[in-house]
Amino acid sequence: MMDLFSKTAFECSKLITKAYSTSFSLGIKTLNKRYHDSIYAIYGFVRYADEIVDTFHDHDKQNLLERFKADTYKAIDEKISLNPVLHSFQLVVNKYNIDMELINAFLHSMEMDLDKKTYRDEDYKTYIYGSAEVVGLMCLRVFCDNDESKYQKLVTPAKHLGSAFQKVNFLRDIKSDFDERGRVYFPDVDFDNFTSEDKRAIEEDIKNDFKASLTGIKSLPKDARAGVYLAYIYYMALYKKIIGLSHTRIKTERIRVPDFNKLLLLIRCYFLHKLNLIL
User: Fold this and answer.
1) Residue 20 belongs to some domain of the structure
2) What is the CATH number of the domain that holds 214?
3) Is residue 227 part of a domain?
4) Which residues, including other chains, have CB under 8 Å from residue 264's CB and lie 6 or more apart?
5) What is the pLDDT along the chain (279 residues), one digit of tens a residue?
6) Is residue 19 one of the residues assigned to a domain?
7) In-domain check, residue 258
8) Which residues constitute the domain of residue 17?
9) What does the chain look like in DSSP terms, one character per residue?
10) In total, how many domains does the chain have?
């Protein structure tokens, strides 16, 4: 019966992923099925932590996050949790030896979101590492399947990819982050006086991250490569769309890639993968 409990826990994480992220769900579909449950579990964990700090405004978010944090550590240590999200996550952590440092860094970034409104350079780097880079590294642990040498080889490009994704998110969401949460993630950027020069400098930084990530995608196991590459081309499409807009436009609306375009990207990636033409 324990197998049934674990199966339903993974199904809960899958449901959360599909409900919250169309693009991430599409990316998972392109991965080999042996990765699906584990990546759903990682996403379910990070999604719920993010929900606490971003949407539970009528509740004591500090207390909720502390409880979630304590329950996470307890689940990993005891190798079971009655919370299906944490149970599926601990199964992945223990199976693939995901470093506790990665989990600690992620939870620290969530804590920063409770009261941090403006970010200096060091805070910005710390936040991006904990909120995005380590999530990519957790997934990389799964893809490398406990092959330590392969994992270490791919750590740096994986961090660059996570960093690029997060910075694109920041640009996409710059209006909602400021209007709804009072946050400005980019250091030395004043939202009220956001300029075209500010935008170009951020875009150049993102471009460098994208460029540094490509060698890592190419070196991933073949059955993981297509899913990661799909995420790459989706975010690249979003990035290029942002580049084509004025700095005033992204201050007034949330930029997105339409679902139909996402489907086209999926089809393109599928055929490139089948023809062994990715990268």
Assistant:
1) yes
2) 1.10.600.10
3) yes
4) none
5) 679 999 999 999 999 999 998 777 777 888 889 999 999 999 999 999 999 998 998 999 999 999 999 999 999 999 999 999 999 999 999 999 999 999 999 999 999 999 877 788 889 999 999 999 999 999 999 999 999 999 999 999 999 999 999 999 999 998 888 888 888 899 988 888 899 999 999 999 999 999 999 999 989 998 898 889 888 888 998 999 999 989 899 888 887 776 666 666 666 665 565 556 555
6) yes
7) yes
8) 2-274
9) -HHHHHHHHHHHHHHHHHHH-HHHHHHHHHS-HHHHHHHHHHHHHHHHHHHHHHH-TTS-HHHHHHHHHHHHHHHHHHT--SSHHHHHHHHHHHHHT--HHHHHHHHHHHHHHHH--B--HHHHHHHHIIIIIHHHHHHHHHHHTT-HHHHHHHHHHHHHHHHHHHHHHHHHTHHHHHHHH--B-STT--GGG--HHHHHHHHHHHHHHHHHHHHHHHHS-HHHHHHHHHHHHHHHHHHHHHHTS-HHHHTTS-----HHHHHHHHHHHHHHHHTT---
10) 1
Among 222, 235, 237, which residue's Cα sits nearest to residue 277? 222
Q: In the block, which residue shows the tokens 């759903």?
A: 40
